[in-house]
Amino acid sequence: MKTLFANCTMPLSDEKQFCVEGNKFAPAEPPFAETIDLGGATVLPSFCDAHSHILAYALSLTQADGTGLASAQEFIACADRFARENDMGELDLVTIKNAEKLPDDAPLEACLRPLHIQMRSGHGGLFNGAARRLLGLGEQAVLEENAYLAATRRVPLPEGEALKSAFAKAQTRYLSYGITTAQEGILTREMFPLYDRLLPALTLDVVAYPSPADFDDALARFRTTEREAGERGQACASVFMAQGTLTIGGVKIFLDGSPQQKTAFLRAPYEGGGSGVQTMSAAEVLDACRFAADRGTRLLAHCNGDGAAEIFLDALEALPPAARAICRPVLIHGQILGDDQLDRIKHLGVIPSFFVAHVRDFGDTHLKNLGEARGMRISPTRSALVRGIPFTLHQDAPVCEPDPLDAVACAVLRKTKSGRRLTGQEIGVLDALRAVTENAADQYGFGDRGRIAAGLRADFVILNRDPLTCSAEDLPSLRVVETYCKGRRVFPAE
User: Fold this and answer.
1) What's the predicted TM-score (pTM) here?
2) Domains contained in the chain, number
């Protein structure tokens, strides 16, 4: 049965109509079983989430919100209020997310309730004495990077219906933002049993990236059939459900931290000193690159600072060209990249994925930490564009809401919270839209989505307005009205 969607605006195409047959786009040739007049509405391909952590986002919906809190007393009051509202016991641990800075830990040590306060970046946090005793941690309250991530793995996770409910809400949010392919940016071994329970409830395609240490076990646990892999055009593992899939898409490594916490690893020091944190040695990075190439799988590398990027690019350059082509490397975040590194990125075939919402949310901090010259060019999308480098944009949920249209607005406006414009690296709306649609699909190696064309999956969204005709200042008001996946409307739910 062919359905014609007529009278629409398609910014990434010259067409004014398109056709869906079953779960795919089809040539717009009659006869049509149905014609739907869209009344001039704007239509885009649905979005591929270039980088986020969907399970962590789901868990964040079960946590207290520390936005705007400053003192220890405010955090304690927030935890007590959250515990009362959620029928928690007096000694149950409460996690408070979105802290912009950590309070003095001395008053927290006297608090009987176990408290875990997480920085918004996710790269650091604080455990009070009660939490450290409960989780079997050491004496240090404030932790960063590898030590912090290791500690968070001891925090109890929601179970049973609470977990399923949180994940269902997360999927609905992703669909409401027009995302039909989501990412699990680091699939740890501790998350395996959680996904075992969540698989029947998947409504999205989720692509997961374990560490090299966990990759083989993840591949064995979540394996596809050859037929399914062939249909997807990929040699990877996936579990096929009635609606969504879980796919092991490659491996993920972390080379540094975050620039707002001065833990991103830099080639030149921060203002006031210090070069950040290098979380992997050059030899370990090279081993990870060789591992991905040997397994014939993709490689994602978290590199915020240019020092971390340099280590990653050096390792890739040490690989034979055929090996680099196999692992199709992706540099995640790329906040601080020099033009010399972008030249190498193009030569080595690396896809940079920029977390451009940093400009709005942390741009003022970056100007202070990095100085004027480096701070102005964070997320250098224009420098990548003029070099002909295909790049993507991401939101790194739960750091930001998983809204690709928000990333588009940030890439065009480049305005900080204080209202300052970080000029020189802004891009046009069309290039930003391509970054979250066709470029994002290419980052995954998915040839069956990311564009509206006959034969591809019928994944598309309808917007509340045309991004090409509204002013740049109005771009933050762009919203998804409807989301379709495989020809079926999934938001709002049918």
Assistant:
1) 0.92
2) 1
